[in-house]
Amino acid sequence: MSAASKNPPSPFGAHRPRGVMRRLIAFTRHAGTHWLAQRWALIARGYGLRRLRAAPVDVTVEPIAARMRLYPFNDSCEKRLLFTPQYMDRDERAFVAAQIRSEMTFLDIGAGCGAMSLFVALRAGPGARILAVEPHPTLYERMLFNLRENEAASVKALHCAVADAEGETVLFYNPYDLAESSIRMVNVEGGGGQTRVAVKSLATLAHEEGFSTIDLLKLDIEGAEDLALEPFLAQEPEELWPRALVLACSPGKWDADLPDMLDSRGYRRIARSRSYLFYQRDA
Predict the structure, then answer these.
(1) How far is residue 19 from each of residues 22, 26, 45, 237, measured CA to CA in Å?
(2) What's the mean pLDDT in 134-143?
(3) pLDDT for position 9
(4) What single-letter DSSP state applies at residue 240?
(5) Is residue 7's pLDDT more than 90?
(6) Residue 8 above 90 pLDDT?
């Protein structure tokens, strides 16, 4: 199964929510943090998804302050950004916000629709250098659209996977949730999809972009984080090691013990959320 794009080329605003859908999104976004409020928000979100019938939606995502076209029907990340962004990755945003500087370097590996790259770009300003890397062709196109809508000149988008080799590889994905895309096998009931994509190492990306330092690395590649990070830390000089790291936590899929490796290289684990590990390394 190929990953053919179905993203509409219409200008931003063509899919702005109206009427019942606009009020529904406002309700879910302003629901409180109490468990009962969250429960009602999730019920309303399910109704909204059924009502949209696989249509995209053009909105401003408040925690990011970015204009984005979101496709909530086949991407769990975009679903949460549209309906319940206030619950989404709050610990991650807080950690990343603390790293933001006006002339920082940020590698966003597994960038999806571009939400975290936009979050950093719109706060760091034009002096930052941000590389947003996404292997799935449909998500990559969505990211390009969102970057253009926000004048994110500090972000360079790159379409490839990241691993321990160069060339080409198979990307497996869940057609019902494109956020589940990985160069490691994705288990999908009823069958998943696959497509061939270019692949580069983390070191190649850093050298091709001329990065002498990396202030922040976000690595979220659905269980293949060890393939990207282990050879980079083993082979590259310490000056290039990221000063701060947001690492998607998938220990059951890793062949290497990444937490132990990071500890042995002077990284301090600052916190852990449901989905991520947060590390810093003192110069």
Answers:
(1) 5, 11, 16, 56
(2) 98
(3) 80
(4) G
(5) no
(6) no
* Nearest-angstrom CA–CA distance, 116 and 155: 11
Looking at residue 3, its pLDDT comes to: 57
Mean pLDDT of 125-145: 97
- Identify which of 211, 233, 204 has the alpha carbon closest to the alpha carbon of residue 104: 211
Cβ neighbors of 221 (< 8 A, separation 6 or more) are 109, 110, 135, 161, 162, 182, 183, 228, 248
Which pair of structure tokens corresponds to residue 279? 């590390």
CATH 3.40.50.150 boundaries in the chain: 90-281
The Cα–Cα gap between 68 and 81 comes to 9
Burial class (CB in 10 A: 0-12, 13-18, 19+), 268: exposed
Q: Label the pairing between strands 244-248 and 216-219.
A: parallel
Q: Which of 101, 167, 110 is nearest to 133 (CA)?
A: 110
Class at the top of the CATH hierarchy for domain 90-281: alpha beta
Q: Which helix (H) or strand (E) holds 230?
A: helix 225-235
Instruction: State how far the Cα of 161 lies from the Cα of 205, in Å rounded to an integer.
Output: 11
Structure confidence by residue, pLDDT tens digits, 186-232: 776 667 899 999 999 999 999 999 999 999 999 999 999 999 999 99
| C-alpha to C-alpha distance for 79 and 49, rounded to whole angstroms | 8
Q: Is the pLDDT of residue 120 over 60?
A: yes
Spell out the residues 6+ positions from residue 75 whose beta carbon is closer than 8 angstroms to its own.
112, 113, 139, 177, 178, 179
Q: What is the percentage of the chain residues whose pLDDT exceeds 90?
A: 88
d(CA 249, CA 223): 8
Instruction: Scan for tokens 């282990």, then name that residue.
Output: 230
